[in-house]
Design goal:
single chain; Beta-lactamase; 2 domains; five-stranded antiparallel beta sheet; 46% helix; 11% strand; globular; binds glutamine
């Protein structure tokens, strides 16, 4: 396995030159774009890593997977999906167009920004701090890492420049999709996107999903099986945004990307995979990261299809 990961990094490294780090969140533009790392955690709890597998990055949209699971545990599937849909969009992750052209302003799915902001408004807690602490506590259990916290600089950078996310949230507030104060929901969303971890943490989260919600380390049931299945399905249909179809053909695994350069992938019944490469392609997915996953999936014949 170690050799395979080293080979995957060697194979994929040239592709990082085809991408660029996200710069619409200014703080994200400061990273070294040539980094590339991968980690795997097996169902037995064994782990391997190669390249920049211990470098920290922010979860960004990968956090939407955790927020959705928590919201469904808090409020039930039926209520959550009265506020957000289940269909892929074919539009970029931060698109606003469908909110106005669809019959209701209900965002199409929980993996795009509009859907994730709507989901965040459903997480239980008296105030933002309590909601965030609950969410970070949940991410810590999923990643088996009690040290996880959010990156203040990235949060401030996104908060200062998040005009489009503010537009999405205000539109949904007007349409009665969002519960509570717009600014409070955005604070939770921006802080959750700024949760900082590494590829090994992400691989652990993928291993929990691979085991239908059970920790490969402690045997604890962290998420009910039905919710693990629900989010894995969204990861297949919407996890890589408007590149989800091509990713399903080439890699064939439930996965979720973030503009921090991370990709969470899960191989049901087998392993979790975490990838980090901050140079992004035009759709906002890690350019090198996708190639790492293509290589590993092909060599180990991991496609679920
Ligand atoms: N925080 C980012 C945003 O809202 C998350 C987007 C992403 O990772 N695709 O724009």
């Amino acid at each position: 396995m170690q050799n395979l990961l080293d080979e995957a990094i060697r194979y994929a490294l040239p592709y990082v030159l085809e991408g660029k780090p996200a710069s619409y969140i200014p703080e994200l533009g400061k990273v070294d774009p040539k980094q590339l790392g991968v980690a795997i955690v097996s169902m037995e709890g064994n782990h391997w890593g190669s390249g920049a597998c211990n470098s920290n990055f922010t979860m960004q949209s990968i956090s939407k997977v955790a927020a959705l699971m928590l919201a469904v545990m808090d409020r039930g599937e039926q209520y959550v999906f009265s506020k957000v849909g289940m269909e892929p969009t074919g539009d970029p992750f931060n698109s606003i167009i469908k909110l106005e052209t669809m019959k209701t302003a209900k965002p199409l799915n929980p993996m795009i920004n509009a859907g994730a902001i709507a989901v965040d408004s459903l997480i239980l807690g008296e105030h933002v701090e309590e909601k965030l602490n609950r969410l970070i506590g949940f991410v810590r259990r999923l990643c088996h890492n009690e040290k996880i916290w959010f990156n203040q600089e990235v949060y401030q950078s996104e908060n200062a420049t998040g005009y489009r996310n503010r537009a999405l949230a205000n539109f949904m507030k007007d349409a009665a999709i969002i519960e509570g104060e717009v600014e409070a929901v955005l604070e939770l969303y921006f802080k959750q996107c700024s949760i900082e971890l590494n590829a090994m943490d992400i691989a652990m989260m993928g291993a929990v999903l691979a085991g239908d919600g059970t920790s490969p380390i402690t045997g604890e049931v962290i998420i009910p099986k039905s919710i693990a299945r629900l989010v894995k399905t969204f990861m297949v249909t919407c996890g890589m945004y408007d590149a989800s179809g091509e990713f399903a053909v080439r890699v064939g695994l439930p996965a979720k990307s973030g503009v921090g350069g991370g990709i969470l992938a899960t191989v049901p019944g087998k392993m979790g995979i975490g990838v980090f490469g901050p140079a992004l392609d035009s759709k906002g997915n890690s350019a090198g990261g996708i190639k790492v996953l293509e290589y590993i999936s092909r060599k180990l014949d991991l496609s679920i299809f």
